[in-house]
Amino acid sequence: MPVDQQTRQPVRPGRRPTARQRAEAGRAAEAAARARAAQRRRTVTGATVAATLLAVAVLVVVVVQSQRVSSSPDAAVPAHTTADGAVVEVGSADASATLDVYEDFGCPACGAFEARHAGTLAELAADGDVLLRYHPISILDRAFTDDYPTRAMNAAGVVVDAAGPEAYVRFTQELFARQPAEGGPGLTDDELVGLAREAGAAGPAVERGIRELVFEDWTRELTDRASREGVAGTPTVLLDGEPLDWATLDPAALADAVRAV
């Protein structure tokens, strides 16, 4: 006996389908249509999501690449630095341990590091236990409305150029002590000039260097160099070349770690 292919109900030869059979057939047809429509929607949605993700990925790559600034090999380098201008050293070169610190002056975690450990590090350096190697970089300009990390780093370069590493440390500790919140402007040029004067770097050349960003190319070169060396964030702290989890150490434990080298 023939069977209705949609309702799977028997159909007697020569007789029209009953009302019930016709209703069931209609419902089955509607369900099949809904299923086909849903499949089309899933296909379109999947394609849209894939296209959106691809667009976002391309946008991220474009934004990241646009933020990489070509640095000049002829960038002016501050005096009293080492490693082709990349490092400000404090302490004895004969110290048994070396501590490398990569910092951005707009970085809150760097501020926390300095607040917790600056005094201990100064004592260790004064006692000849460690050679401190400061690597300033500026990776957080986008977190401020006035490129503050670059301006602060340039000012630090002006200070070390004019007055040496000890003045650099005094100046940068004040930068961290007065660190502005992200999302707004940083310290003004007038404030940077004033802090430089308090740290021991004063005069027309210092003021001009801060206001005119005389070491701006240097800030770019050091930031690019740190990126090429694998520095992914700040602060990055290395004890004799090995990463140091400074956040888990109190000052006494940090001193013990340094003296144990």
Description:
Strand 2, helix 2 (108-126) and strand 3 (130-136) form a beta-alpha-beta unit. Helices cover 53% and strands 9% of the residues. It has helices at residues 19-67, 108-126, 148-163, 165-177, 189-199, 204-211, 216-228, 251-259; strands at 88-90, 97-103, 130-136, 236-239, 242-243. Strands 1-3-2-4-5 form a 5-stranded mixed sheet, with helices on both faces. The chain has 2 domains: 1-67; 88-259, Glutaredoxin.
List keywords for this structure.
about 260 residues; alpha+beta; Glutaredoxin; 2 domains; five-stranded mixed β-sheet; 5 strands; about 55% helix; globular
Write a brief caption for the model.
By secondary structure, the protein is an alpha+beta fold. 53% of the residues lie in helices and 9% in strands.
Measured as a percent range, the helix fraction is 40-55%
Distance between the termini: 94 Å
> From the alpha-carbon coordinates, what is the Rg to the nearest angstrom?
33 Å
The proportion of residues in beta strands is: 5-15%
> Helices and strands: which structural class?
alpha+beta
> What's the CATH architecture of the largest domain?
3-Layer(aba) Sandwich
Q: Please indicate the count of domains.
A: 2
CATH topology assignment of the largest domain: Glutaredoxin
Q: Would you spell out the secondary-structure blueprint of this structure?
A:
Elements lengths: L18 H49 L20 E3 L6 E7 L4 H19 L3 E7 L11 H16 L1 H13 L11 H11 L4 H8 L4 H13 L7 E4 L2 E2 L7 H9 L2
Parallel strand pairs: 2-3
Antiparallel strand pairs: 1-3, 2-4, 4-5
